[in-house]
Amino acid sequence: MNRQEHWDAVYTTKRPEEVSWYQADPRLSMELVRSAGTTPGARVLDVGGGASVLVDRLLEGGFANVGVMDVSPTALAASRRRLGEASAAVEWIECDVLEYRSAEPWTIWHDRAVFHFLVDP
Known about the structure:
The chain is of the alpha/beta class.
């Protein structure tokens, strides 16, 4: 099973709030984004953001250039549904982070639950 199949299976069999890394209030992540001097005009990418509500809080906080990357289209679809019309303001990137190449740089990359899963050199 490849990474996409694995994470699609997780998000097909569990609701976002049922996974161990779910946070109803990503307060610490918001504090870290802000403490890095990130302004609302900055480009903020949530790597492995999937069904996380961080994107909701970023939009509510006035951030206008937000991206969410995840290898699982199922997880991304959950966030799009949750955000409704507001999802049009987000750059959705369905991609394995190991293969991602951005044409435009991001001011800050946020990762709360991706890189520690990548254990193979």
